[in-house]
Design brief:
This protein has 411 residues and is of the alpha+beta class. The chain contains 15 helices and nine strands.
């Protein structure tokens, strides 16, 4: 859906439903039943899959430049596989390109995994994976519990690989009894049945396509979320904007007054794990909905104004000639990826309508820019210019709000 189509779709209050989704985490660990000899852990039973952020930092012992990217990550048989992010789906490409394709594999034999130090990355919840062949990766996800699960299963896998290698790939030796032969036969029979069961399981891709597994809405890359929903604006954003405008744009302190944090977190959980109905009475406080919408944009791994465009927007806002500034801003906005452009158009159109009720809600264009500037626009790495950046962030949002029609709807 292009910008013009999106605008008309919103004008009559209709929102295109979307098919949802995958989960950010999928795992199978047969060892969870205990550590007795009968349930001895085996590396083949350690499986896990989910969306993570990763970057290579070292190859053949030489440091390489960081290039963070979201990846579908699969652990199976002692091998960690990073898959390419099917970004082409966001641009309306053929479904054939929307396949998860393996990008790189890491053999965990002889590897090490641990929490990365602050000097390795300024991001939170970062793991450092070192392969025996001199390759090193940083793995990250904003949710601490998910990273903790990955850390545990990777540690267990590496430890089990060492045990298997020590005993020639066999299980740990146990005390020999007169019934050991019968016991071995039973174990082989159980192992065979388990393997047949595992082989019959549907693939992750097929389960995802049928909608049985869902991705978190919060903390998901914008392009990935839109690709999964087959749209260019996340349905959560559309639902929140529709609900806010239905409740009334004249409400005092809209987007400035904080909603109840516990209720906002409950709404977030609902959005991540099931279909969200904002008509439900538990979301009657409009400040809860505006708080959740701000939280959604704040938790995007990459902000609505992409990192790649940050310096260009800063340069554009500093242009002295006003008409030249408008021209540059138009070019920059039109150069954004479809999901960023269309989501920005919908959000800023909504904020313009909020500002029209400024006498009632006391949300002037300056107040809206102060609230949303740091949320929608931030540098990839903080620097000494943080105070100056904050001024420019607010000015950019204010400028686009003031020139919304010329930037988004001019021919």
């Amino acid at each position: 859906m292009g910008p013009t189509q999106l605008s008309s779709a919103q004008s009559d209050g209709r929102f295109v439903p979307s098919h949802r989704r995958n989960t950010s985490d999928y795992s199978s660990d047969s060892s969870s039943t205990g550590n007795s000899p009968e349930t001895q852990q085996n590396v083949q039973n350690l499986e896990k899959a989910g969306i993570l952020n990763k970057t290579k930092v070292c190859e053949n012992g030489k440091k390489v430049r960081k290039n963070w990217a979201q990846t579908w990550t699969v652990l199976h048989g002692g091998v960690l596989t990073f898959h390419k992010d099917p970004k082409s789906a966001a641009t309306g490409a053929s479904n054939k390109t929307n396949q998860i394709v393996p990008e790189v594999t890491v053999d965990l034999r002889g590897a090490s995994i641990g929490r990365a130090s602050k000097d390795k990355s300024s991001k939170k919840n970062v793991l450092e994976l070192k392969g025996k062949n001199g390759v090193e990766f940083l793995i990250q996800y904003d949710t601490e519990s998910i990273i903790a699960d990955w850390h545990k299963v990777l540690v267990d896998t590496i430890r089990q690989l060492k045990v298997d290698e020590k005993f020639g790939g066999a299980s740990r030796p146990s005390v020999t009894h007169s019934t050991s032969s019968a016991g071995d036969t039973d174990q082989k029979r159980v192992r065979t049945k388990l393997m047949k069961f595992l082989m019959k399981r549907p693939t992750l891709q097929s389960v995802k396509e049928k909608g049985y597994i869902r991705d978190n809405v919060f903390g998901c890359h914008l392009a990935t979320l839109c690709a999964q929903e087959r749209t260019t604006v996340p349905s959560f954003v559309e639902k929140c904007i529709k609900a806010v405008e239905k409740r009334g744009l004249e409400i005092d302190g809209l987007y400035r007054v904080s909603g109840n944090l516990a209720v906002i977190q409950k709404l977030r959980f609902k959005a991540d794990h099931e279909e969200l109905d904002l008509e439900d009475g538990q979301w009657e406080d409009v400040h809860v909905i505006t708080g959740a919408l701000k939280l959604f944009f704040r938790e995007l791994p990459e902000p609505l104004f992409p990192y790649s465009h940050f310096n260009n927007f800063i340069s554009a806002i500093r242009i002295p000639d006003y008409n030249t500034k408008v021209s540059f801003m138009c070019e920059l906005v039109n150069s954004l990826p479809p999901s960023n452009h269309d989501t920005m158009e919908l959000l800023f159109g909504h904020l313009r309508r909020v500002i029209k009720y400024g006498e009632d809600n006391r949300m002037t264009v300056q107040n809206v820019a102060i609230v949303f500037g740091p949320t929608l626009l931030r540098p990839e790495t903080e620097s000494a210019n943080i105070t100056m950046h904050m001024v420019f962030q607010n000015q950019i949002v204010e400028f686009i709000l003031n020139e919304y029609e010329r930037i988004f709807h001019s021919s």
